Amino acid sequence: TQEIVQQEAAKQNITISDQEVDDIITQYAEQLGGQENLEASLELYNTNLDQLREDIKLQKITMKLYEQSINPTEDVLKAFFEENKVAFYGEGTTATYEEKSQEIRDAYIATEYTANEAQWLQEMQNQYRIQNNLTAAQLSDKIGLRMVLCPTYQLEVCRLQGTIGSTAEIF
Q: CA 102, 162, 170, 35 torsion: positive or negative?
């Protein structure tokens, strides 16, 4: 399961640096009010910082793989921004696509992934001819995509779904 994602990432030369993971953990700690609160949250969910690091790395790799599979055009991203501008930035916002293009790209990919996760994982499963009778949902659980903490690049999706918070469970 994790091996499939790792193999595909290696094949496509996709890597995640320790600094990227550290940045996300720092943002989680800030969102939760400090490192102590982050560690308490991890303990509450019977996990630890090392496991969180691995989950973040795997999730970021998975999202990069998915992004390459859908490769949204600029027109699609601009339309997504216009459709969701008020939900993302509030009524009367002056935000422009140009200022927020990376946020919008990340939110679009996260939204599409959420909507198509099972199908995409099934396609990966078929591609690697997994013979262990796992469903796509079980595969998702196995590779750790169901995060307790809301990933930084998915904050806008969480806000859209009304689940943003210190322990938003969106997947």
A: positive
In this structure, are residues 85 and 78 in contact, taking their beta carbons and an 8 Å threshold?
no
How far separated are the first and last CA of the chain, in Å rounded? 18
Structure token pair of residue 136: 């796509």
Distance (Å, rounded) from C-alpha 70 to C-alpha 167? Answer: 29
Instruction: Give the pLDDT confidence of 20-29 residue by residue, as tens digits.
Output: 999 999 999 9
Return the number of other C-beta atoms located less than 10 Å from residue 139's C-beta. 22
**Residue 146, token pair as written in the block:** 């169901």
Quick one: 17 exposed, middle or buried, by C-beta within 10 A (0-12, 13-18, 19+)?
A: exposed
CB 39 within 8 A of CB 159: no
Give the residue carrying structure tokens 């199908």. 119
Rg (CA), the chain: 17
Q: d(Cα 55, Cα 68) in Å, to the nearest integer?
A: 20
CA-to-CA separations, 48 to 42, 44, 45, 119, 135, in angstroms, rounded = 6, 10, 9, 30, 27
Residues 122-157 pLDDT 10s = 888 777 764 445 555 555 555 544 444 444 434 333
Does residue 109 contact residue 72 with C-beta atoms inside 8 Å?
yes
User: Other C-beta atoms within 10 Å of 61: how many?
Assistant: 21
